[in-house]
Write a structure and sequence with these properties.
Helices cover 48% and strands 8% of the residues. With 342 residues, the protein is α/β, with parallel strands linked by helices. The chain has three domains: 60 residues, no CATH class; 198 residues, no CATH class; 58 residues, no CATH class. A five-stranded mixed beta sheet has the order 1-5-3-4-2, sandwiched between helices. A hairpin with a 2-residue loop joins strand 3 and strand 4. The protein starts with 6 loop residues before the first helix and ends in a 7-residue tail after the last helix.
């Protein structure tokens, strides 16, 4: 069949105006799909429904004779220091909302919390963990009806934000996107998105997405508007507050060897409910020596791949019985989570 007359290829190419190439759109098409199936009206409809769901676009906009995809109505907010990237961040928001809808349907726990202060949430996590760890924070969020996953399989050449939070009906969700190996950095990202949720930044709409393009876990810029300052303050309070700040200030202003930075961070965090990685990140904020921090973080890494920690917790909470075959495939293709054969 000629490319120009193939309805599937025409549909995939139609996303160009949204900032996605046909190959990037194909990232969201199941492996079993064959383009020739779109020659049948039922097959084309199946592809249209699948893309509408996975990318949060209007089905009607895909069904026109000349398809012109449009994102579904909702509130999209982009926190970025690179405004020229907003087109691709809109795509990221569509990807995030499409995944969040599937997660929301399969979350076992009901949304059950009155937004706790960072101090109260910290106390609850410390009752079970020696510090506010990535695993402990993810467990708390899932227990209270807030799904958290890491999108490991992000489309190539599509702008990758650090993280986003999404609201589907009454349920918020946290999606971490940053390709990261240091546990402390991902813990901060999840804590920051929790800060947005607990501070009411998603209350205005049941189809809301807030995309954080860059967050202060390295030398990159930080979109420091009021919402970001509030979410950052919440995250810092959750991770240690004044106690964390004092620990960071107690370290030396400069280190010639990263191992000494690690030793000192481990010393001030031990038995104090602090994570050494957060102490090192806090020190970097004070010193600006992000290169030294990058090397120091290697000493704190475990044998676990850090994003697997997030998704291992998620797998234990997702109710597979509430997922369609397409839903399982979609979650697996984006996160790498493997489900038991049904």
């Amino acid at each position: 069949m000629a490319t120009s007359k193939n309805p599937a290829k025409t549909l995939l190419s139609s996303f160009k105006d949204l900032g996605m190439s046909a190959s990037q759109v194909r990232h969201f098409v199941p492996e079993w799909w064959e383009d020739d199936a779109a020659g049948d009206e039922g097959g084309l409809l199946e592809l249209q429904i699948l893309l509408a769901r996975r990318l949060n676009v209007s089905l009607a906009s895909l069904q026109a004779g000349a398809p012109k995809p449009e994102f579904r109505a909702g509130t999209r907010r982009f926190k970025t220091v690179h405004p020229q990237g907003s087109t691709q961040l809109a795509v990221a928001a569509g990807v995030g909302h499409g995944l969040a809808q599937v997660l929301a349907a399969a979350c076992k726990s009901q949304v059950q919390f009155e937004a706790p202060s960072p101090t109260k949430l910290r106390e609850q996590i410390l009752s079970k963990y020696p510090a506010v760890t990535l695993q402990g924070l993810c467990h708390w969020l899932w227990d209270h009806g807030i799904p958290v996953v890491h999108i490991t399989n992000w489309p190539k050449q599509l702008r990758r934000p650090d993280a986003m939070c999404v609201r589907v009906g009454p349920r918020p969700a946290v999606l971490v996107v940053r390709n990261e190996v240091a546990p402390a950095r991902l813990t901060y990202l999840v804590a920051h998105e929790a800060g947005h949720i607990m501070s009411g930044h998603l209350k205005s709409d049941d189809n809301a997405v807030l995309v954080d393009d860059t967050l202060p876990v390295d030398e990159q810029g930080f979109a420091s508007d009021e919402d970001e300052r509030v979410a950052d303050a919440y995250a810092m309070g959750l991770l240690g507050g004044e106690q964390l700040r004092a620990a960071c200030n107690s370290l030396r202003p400069h280190y010639l060897e990263e191992i000494k930075l690690v030793v000192d961070a481990l010393g001030v965090s031990k038995n104090n409910g602090l994570d050494a990685g957060q102490v090192i990140l806090g020190w970097a904020r004070l010193s600006g020596d992000w290169k030294r921090v990058g090397m120091a973080m290697r000493y704190l890494m475990t044998t676990h791949v850090v994003f697997v920690v997030v998704n291992d917790v998620a797998r234990d909470y997702i109710d597979q019985d509430e997922l369609s075959a397409d839903g399982r495939d979609h979650i697996s293709s984006l996160t790498g989570i493997e489900f038991e054969a049904s």
